[in-house]
Write a structure and sequence with these properties.
Shape: globular
CATH topology of the largest domain: TIM Barrel
Number of helices: 22
Structural class: alpha/beta
Strand order of the largest sheet: 1-2-5-6-8-11
CATH class of the largest domain: Alpha Beta
Bound molecules: beta-D-glucopyranose
Strand content: 15-25%
Number of strands: 30
Number of domains: 3
Helix content: 25-40%
Largest sheet: 6 strands, mixed
Radius of gyration: 27 Å
Amino acid sequence: METKIRNRVSQLFFFAALLLLNFSCTTSTEETKVQQILESMSLKQKAELVVGTGMYFPMPDSIRAMLPPAFGGESTGDTLYDQMVDRVRSYLPGAAGNSAEFPELGITSQVLADGPAGLRISPTREGDPNTYYCTAFPIGTLLASSWDTELIEQVGQAMGEEVLEYGADVILGPALNIQRDPLCGRNFEYYSEDPLVTGKMAAAMVKGIQSNGVGTSIKHFAANNQETNRLTVNTIVSERALRELYLKGFEIAVKEGKPWTVMSSYNKINGTYASESYDLLTKVLRDDWGFDGYVMTDWTGGSDRVAQMKAGNDMIQPGSYEYITTLIDAVENGTLDESVLDTNVKRILTVMMRTPRYKHLEISGKPELKAHARVTYKAATDGMVLLENRDQTLPFSGNIKKVAAFGNTSYEFISGGTGSGDVNEAYTISLIQGLETAGYEFNATLKELYETYIRNARAAHQGPQNMLASIMGGMVPVEEMPLDPAVAKEMAEAMDIALITIGRNAGEGYDREAAEGDFYLTGTEKNLIRDVSQAFHDAGKKAVVILNVAGVVETASWSQIPDAVLCVWQPGQEAGNSVMDVVSGKVNPSGKLAVSFPVLYDDTPTAKNFPGHAVEGAVDDTPDGSGFSFMQRTPWEVVYEEDIFVGYRYYNTFDVPVAYEFGYGKSYTTFQYGNLSLDSEKFEDQVTATIDVTNTGTVAGREVVQVYASAPEGRLEKPDEVLVAFGKTGLLEPGQSETLTFTIDASVLSSFDEENSSWLAEAGTYTLKFGASSRDIREEANFTMEKDITAGTVSRALVPQQEIATLHK
Ligand code: BGC
């Protein structure tokens, strides 16, 4: 027996050695090849490779005139270059960008196409009868609400197959900025207010997508938490808040997911454009975290091309011919060392060698859209959050056959947000279609009423004011149709239950507003909820609100009126079907909020510093004098005065009431937590905790268990508790239990110590809290740490140039 084991061990060693050998061979062959290509390149070719080939998509001349030249597509006068650009642009119509190709050197173009909710390409092509639709998967916020990294990886696998089969090399996603404030217009693309959830979701997504042999570009690196004046905003933020919140998710994604590329963000951080920041792109990203891919700018980001190269921003997207000249001149006049450019080029070539185009992989142009529709259908149900459910209103009982659907969004469900994160999907299943497929009857008169309203409202509005939304797909009009209470009464008599959908969209380029019709419900919407609920209650029936939203909305003032509230976010193209599975009870909701719902917008810790202000003395040259411009460069700054107290870190530490706390979500069943045990009460390198979760209700369900740590008081100020781990059970039948295991190491317990540029876990007693939410702690256990532990020292980087007044406990 012993010999057998020994043989087995030596066999394993042998294979491991072979693997290592193989790995180092490939690596060194790759390096040699890259070096050979580099040596065969002229300076002009190097400059052409680091500058993208421009961006082109059909649009009216009036709109193009408002955009920078990079979007123009006009001739450069360099015929060979223009021919190359025309060629690479034809590879995948609708892709956001390309890198240059040099077939004579074996350098292939890399096709870069948006994300993050699915691949974004043109669904149709001139003179081509085929269609090229992609799957619209649920938005990032919904995926994070599933707290299920395996599920996210599956979504990634499906998404990546479309990237591969349609012929893209890198998808521009996932997007993982922290949801610092509920009004950021792109929160829907992002995961959470918490960096651990953010990082884990992003890492899983990267792994899933890249398992297809295509790349990702995690974005927008970093501290890009608003859309207002996004091209110029200077984010003023402490090193500690950066490390603990705004960089943390990226750190996890880089270390665990190993993305091929990173997209630097538009904004400045403490005075320097992210794309020009050596601190960010070299010291933090590469030296501290070991990133080995290339960095590209966000589209037209930054201003100094030479500084970008020096910082480690290897590729400028979408690029413009003049930048090529700028870089050549810089090398020739000695302001840019050619070795810097060589490093940038090498990184691009190294990633290129992994791409499908370089490997000449055959592409089908026909991804598994049917199978992916099933993936998105299922994923959406797992991230829906049941906010209220009085008297078991949901799931529908067997007596419910006829459903009255109110609210115009019931008829035009919103699958995802607008802008570059919008997917060109073949269809979106509306709530009404979902109802029908699930075998329920809807009311034709009500349908006609809403559809007519939507048609007229669309015609009356000059089009949405969000310019990108008008280029990239319209918005559903906000509910403005007052519903005649007589109609509500009539429906309450004729139908068995009411579903009232409240819809909100948001998108790139604009932030949302703390106004009625956006964060707050309009009077019309509130009346609708009140009147319909009243009418149905009078008839002894129930009313349910469905929130089809891009982000957080105000709920506290109305959530007790209907019988149930289900937040379905923007659930992707199978929307109506996914919602009906949860409403009908086919799926028991297991989503929990990865973002807090404040009572009022003004309760948020960021409210007084969002979206910032014009830089003192700056000239306001915006067209309408509003200080806001989508693509113009208005000097602007925002101070992150709340520091590390973002989201629940603030609400829970400062005892601020919320409508729904971070981690909150109901189920159709109940769970009991028990048998908590720690392997040691003394912390050495780590502590392992196990806890049993039992389904104590009557239907099968899944539970998300969250582990928060409260650190002892010490030199560094800390939030009352911080999420350090989470897990989700499998589907537990009534009475069934599962044991979840969590390993907690010093890295998640530590705070960033600016004085020493290190991660510090201070000595003392720690409490681990096991919760069904951040405010519903079911079990607790303590352990002690005898001495301070330093969990890593990093570069001194991104230091603010000014004192920042920050919030204190
Ligand atoms: C967005 C990026 C996007 C890029 C390409 C930019 O405006 O900020 O997220 O990937 O455009 O479309």
